[in-house]
Amino acid sequence: MSRNTKINLVLLFAVAALAVLPLALGLGDHKKEPFTGADAEAETAITELKPDYEPWFSPLYEPPSGEIESALFSLQAALGAGVLAYYFGLRRGRRQGEQRALDREGERRAPERQAGSAPAGAAGKSAAERD
Questions:
Q1: Which residue, 18, 47, 44, is CA-closest to 31?
Q2: Which residues contact 63 (CB under 8 A, 6 or more apart)?
Q3: What's the CA gap between 105 and 77, in Å, rounded?
Q4: Rounded CA gap, 5 and 12, in Å?
Q5: Which residue of 44, 58, 76, 97 is surrounded by the most CB atoms within 10 Å?
Q6: CA gap 40, 35 in Å, rounded
Q7: What is the C-alpha separation between 101 and 52, in angstroms, rounded?
Q8: Cα separation of 81 and 88, whole Å?
Q9: What are phi and psi of 126, to 5 degrees?
Q10: Contact 33, 40 (CB under 8 A)
């Protein structure tokens, strides 16, 4: 097993553990909504500390339900992942293309190197043959 495969497996295990451990350990069981977002947690904390607080801004678009809000968030995450995957794929493709070009260049020069060890043409003839 290569070193990269081992690293990838360790990272995959770490991500799986981060996803499963909060559920397995029952973190958030004492809350009404255990896994709400940071915005909702902040709003709750602010209203508890200062009930007369007025927000500075209002949202440009307020989704009609939590499901639609979650769907829009998922769409945003998918688009971001797609852009990152495209970028990394493009970089890898360019790097592979450059490597192939270098390999082809090396294949073209290899016969010249072999020919260089056994000179050809007038320069390769002995002094008696040139005269």
A1: 44
A2: 69, 72
A3: 42
A4: 10
A5: 44
A6: 10
A7: 67
A8: 11
A9: -75, 170
A10: yes
Question: To 5 degrees, how large is the angle CA 44–CA 48–CA 50?
Answer: 115
Average pLDDT, consecutive stretches of 10 residues, N- to C-terminus, the chain (131 residues): 93 94 77 72 88 87 86 95 96 92 80 58 53 52
- Contact (CB, 8 A) for 71 and 77: no
| Paired tokens of 107 | 């294949």
pTM above 0.70, yes or no: no
Q: Measured in whole angstroms, how far is the alpha carbon of residue 75 from the centre of its chain?
A: 18
Q: What does the DSSP assignment read for the chain?
A: --HHHHHHHHHHHHHHHHHHHHHHTTTTTTSSSTT--HHHHHHHHHHHH-TT---S---S---SSHHHHHHHHHHHHHHHHHHHHHHHHHHHHHHHHHHHHHHHHHHHHHHHHHHHHS--SGGGS-HHHH-
Torsion, Cα of 21, 26, 28, 34 (10° steps): 80
